[in-house]
Amino acid sequence: MLLLLLNSIAVHTVHVLRAAMLAQTRAPLPIRTESPQGPRILLLVNARTNGKTIVSVEMALERTGGRVMRVTERAEAEQLVRRWDPEVMVLLGWSTTTGDWLRHLQFASRQGELPFLVVGNSAGEDREETNAVAALEVGAQAYIPAGMGLGILTAQVCGLLKKLRTQAPAPRLVQEENLCIDLVSLRVWILGQEIHLPRRLFYLLYYFATHPDEVVSNEQIADILWGGKGTYLAPNTLVVKIYRLRKILESAGAKGWLETVHSFGYRFSPPKNG
Q1: Is residue 271 part of a domain?
Q2: Is residue 4 part of a domain?
Q3: Scanning 40, 166, 177, 197, which has the fewest C-beta atoms within 10 Å of its C-beta?
Q4: 157 with 184, same domain?
């Protein structure tokens, strides 16, 4: 009986060691990474796309290290273009009306043209070619046919983001001598004095500073504070956040820079050097 027990233990140990050796030699799986400060990627999904394809495309985009916001309605995408300010948009699927909608979207966008790519939706070969031509004519950076492989999509998005980074000026905002926000070192100076902000308030101030003299609604502030996820925030939560930011600004001599616009939201109006 003892010999049978020892033999069983020995066999089990061999299996465990063999599994461990195989795990070490097996190629590592891709890691889904998502950085809160990573590039913002808007994914607009055609309503006819199957769920498995949607998940696969979303995972491929997350491997770029960016934040992916997925929507299925064009109206919702338009709101996010204005409020979330995505760096790249990916369209999963194409229809005959997509081109006209994109022309309207680019005209309405506050930042001008929004770089976008298109992933095919398993149309026939002739139809896929027609869709690709239409997408490229309206300004798509690339058209990736269905079935080509999502590694191509990840590489295309990474390349586009890298190109945008190298073409854009250094990510630093300077409002003459009154305000400086450095997105590289994550530091803020008000009237030459460095101030320290919690992460959420830092990005809220950055948004205010890049949209001076504009009224920012409570809904927009909620999106900024919680990464564009549309999370509901109680009014008191917003009031507390604004109160904290305003007190920090006032302590640095920036009293009155952040104004309350009753029934609308808040407006950031730093003084202009004359």
Answers
A1: no
A2: no
A3: 166
A4: no
The span from the CA of 249 to the CA of 180, in Å, is 13
Determine phi and psi for 79, rounding to 5 degrees.
-65, -40
Annotate 168-199 with DSSP letters as a single string: SPPSEEEETTTEEEETTTTEEEETTEEE---H
Q: Residue 253 region, left (φ>0) first, then alpha (ψ -120 to 50), else beta? A: left
My answer on whether 44 and 120 are in the same domain is: yes
Provide the domain count of the chain: 2
The answer on 208 and 97 residing in a single domain is: no
At 152, list the tokens: 């191509």
Q: Model's pTM, two decimal places?
A: 0.52
pLDDT in tens, 203-246: 899 889 888 889 988 888 887 777 554 455 666 888 899 999 99
**DSSP structure class, residue 253:** T
Residue 143 pairs in a beta bridge with 118
pLDDT, tens digit (0-9, with 9 covering 90-100), for 139-191: 898 999 877 778 888 888 988 888 777 665 545 556 667 888 887 778 899 99
206 and 131 within one domain? no
* Cα–Cα nearest to 98, from 55, 52, 134, 126: 134
Q: Domain boundary residue among 164, 182, 207?
A: 164
Cβ neighbours of residue 238 under 8 Å, at least 6 residues apart? 218, 221, 222
Q: Is residue 173 part of a domain?
A: yes
